[in-house]
């Protein structure tokens, strides 16, 4: 990586928007200096017009769900009918076509200002469950796709053992399962990280990993000090089935088996109880909210504010990729809370943006990112302040404009590790993102 100096017309430095900020980056991909008060770009500096913020961290992604966009919005249905469409796409994935799709999805993320993604990955094997010649071929395809798209990835390799509370996987789920958590741990241990990739773990849900195997996954992550993610109480049906099987809520079950804690992120937590909120908050478990997906699937509105007040940090994800727009996720968390309570102002724009940046990075095992300061990873994005959506307010209100008015279409620049991945709205590494996505999705959805 070549050292580079950037000049931000305006930049958010954690609390306030500052004009004329010089950001120097090193060959190591880190920020070496941040200086304010520069009226214009120094000689040789790259000019970033607009508002520069830390890169956005997408804490929860299922890349192949991008192929469902539009299709699953036809007519009505429930989460469970949506799942049938999802299985059909999952059944067609190979390492080769998953690479093609994921590269396009991750390039779309870069165009939306996302510099790091947490990929909740559970499609491991061939249809029928037979491992590929390389048992981690699917995960390695995702890591390679992120590298070519120019963003960071935490591959959250997912244990998925059961179709529900001890029942064997049905045929459509067979390629998700390693048989048991110990076999999952053996396979996952062969995954290797890199400069742009880190390896974490995931428990798909309490439905998919029997109680006696939860500690195996948690122990694997603890031994490596790796992030651990889990879908939690996304559906009331999951809660009801868990109570019937174990006489515990899903959160209680996870707590009893050592799953919760500061390195753990619980995704959704839509239908947790008051007791669950106390358990999650006391343990310091991060909650990843995915408002656009939760609305799209009619899951409900989770108690994000109550969880935060109890002690849980918040992060954000685009999950099923009905849209890929972390600014929309940030504003949706506040606006959904307003609808539910009929009260405004649960979070400031600064707090919402921190969930989309620093706290999201931390949930993915990158605590040295998400801030514009010396020593941090040189990941940042610039949002236009002169588009039809953002023009008008003074720059000092840039954060409020970014969170409550801007969209992914307003992203002008994305820098990852000091490398200019998106310049003036154009991806510098994947030159035909729309065409690539069209081809990859078409290959998966063709009759």
Which key terms come to mind for this protein?
single chain; 447 residues; alpha/beta; 8-stranded mixed sheet; 8-stranded parallel sheet; 15 helices; 16 strands; 21% strand; globular
- Residue stretches low in confidence (pLDDT < 50, at least 5 long) are none
Overall geometric form:
globular
Q: In angstroms, what is the radius of gyration?
A: 21 Å
Strands of the widest sheet, in order across it, are: 3-2-1-4-13-14-15-16
* Structure annotation, total helices: 15
SS class: alpha/beta
Overall strand count:
16
Provide the β-strand percentage band.
15-25%
Sheet with the most strands? 8 strands, mixed
**Average predicted confidence as pLDDT:** 97
What percentage of residues falls in helices of 4 or more residues?
25-40%
For the termini, the CA-CA separation is 44 Å
